[in-house]
Amino acid sequence: MTYELYYWPGIQGRGEFVRLALEDAGAPYVDVARRPKGDARMLKLMQNARDRDRPFAPPFLRSGALLIAQTANILHYLGPRLRLAPKSESARLVLHQHQLTIADWLTEVHDTHHPIGSGLYYEEQKREARRRAADYRENRLPKFLAYFESTLERDPRPSTYVHLSLFQMVEGHRYAFPRTFRRLERRIPKLLRLHERVARRPRLAAYLASERRIAFNRQGIFRHYAELDSPG
Amino acid sequence: MTYELYYWPGIQGRGEFVRLALEDAGAPYVDVARRPKGDARMLKLMQNARDRDRPFAPPFLRSGALLIAQTANILHYLGPRLRLAPKSESARLVLHQHQLTIADWLTEVHDTHHPIGSGLYYEEQKREARRRAADYRENRLPKFLAYFESTLERDPRPSTYVHLSLFQMVEGHRYAFPRTFRRLERRIPKLLRLHERVARRPRLAAYLASERRIAFNRQGIFRHYAELDSPG
Predict the structure, then answer these.
(1) Which of A80, B18, B79, B135 sits between 20 and 30 A of A177, alpha carbons compared?
(2) Alpha-helical regions (H) of B116-228
(3) In chain A, domain spans
């Protein structure tokens, strides 16, 4: 069966966490909104007033008759099907718990450049963004990194969609907050080893080198603005 | 079996969404952190470095050998057990999707008074809070309300934990943003009818009238500051 992924074209964003799982598993999927007229199809599904369960926002996934929204929910569904999650309910709950904490973390990343309103331009909230980003760098980022570092085994072998998502969090921070992240790297040896190992997984390496991997840019969730990174 | 709920004492916060489900179902539970020395027990579980799956933050729930964190994850687990969710996987996914959108919504409510840093006092981010709250009232709140209104049946009968959570969102907004919410009420007749019906469910009505229901206050997620509500 071919999955259909719906997400804003042109950015990695939240859709990337689903893409990484599909790509790593070698699962057949169509990235609908990147196809001709695909973005119109995506909007139509979101605006379908007759569907009480329609998504509030992308990403969402079509799997047969199911239309599933919310990144962590999609991964919770895909996990066992892509062999990126154990099958027992209790182990799946724990994995999902970690993915939901990553979702919270990602929202805080987004809000470093959009602390006032997601419908406003960065330039309209630059001053507030500086303050929020400073708090993020000093308090929140170290806290999230320490937490996830502590969740990993000594010799972390990638095996779940949470590991793929942690790879993406490392990638994103290296792009968006290079100076801050470099200073924190010595505290997170297990996360960095995990990151390396994920990047070397054959299907994922092929994906990352392909045109299907959208480059980080200033429309996405991870954005590089020198003034939001730590000084010097 | 008696569940153990762990959440900050003194506020409704995210824990309240779990409490409403437990109370409505008449499930036996202990609100651990509100008992003597309970908050120390809660912190100990969060700081237990040997537990790789320990929670990042409250609320979390002990159910037998399981310790489950993340509000929506807890409700996903409890749903079928408390008869507040259907049993089929696909119906549970849809319900969970809605709960995750409520979680996103609640984070935006929190950020109206804490747009810069959750570790700072409101008074330290008052100016930014005014701007963020204005954007929330004008853009985000109407969008979330319209979305959830459209998810409801014409004659909504409470039957799931999502319905209980929507009750709480209405309660919270009436407390925190009374002027704004009153102006929006005519757009959400189904949500208001649902709210009324939830409030009349016998076990829930008893809970709401009891001392177990903590009053809204200025330490919680829903806070009333006149300057963050719409003017006049």
Answers:
(1) B135
(2) 126-135, 141-151, 161-176, 178-184, 189-200, 202-208
(3) 3-81, 89-201+218-228
Tens digits of per-residue pLDDT, B147-179?
A: 999 999 989 999 999 999 999 999 999 999 999
Cβ within 8 Å, pair B150-A77? no
**What average pLDDT does range A12-36 have in this prediction?**
98
Q: Which residues contact B186 (CB under 8 A, 6 or more apart)?
A: none
Q: How confident is the model at residue B12 (pLDDT cuts 50, 70, 90)?
A: very high
What is the per-residue pLDDT for B232?
A: 72
* ipTM > 0.90, yes or no: yes
Q: Which residues of B touch A101 (CB under 8 A)?
A: 56-57, 69-70
* Smallest CA–CA distance from A46 into chain B, residue: B147
Nearest to A116 among B104, B107, B128 (CB): B128
A224: left (phi over 0), alpha (psi -120 to 50) or beta: beta
Q: Give pTM, 2 decimals.
A: 0.98
Say whether B89-201 and B3-81 share the same fold.
no
- B3-81: CATH architecture: 3-Layer(aba) Sandwich (3.40)
Chain A: closest CA distance from residue B34 (Å): 24
Q: Are A56 and B101 in contact (CB < 8 Å)? A: yes
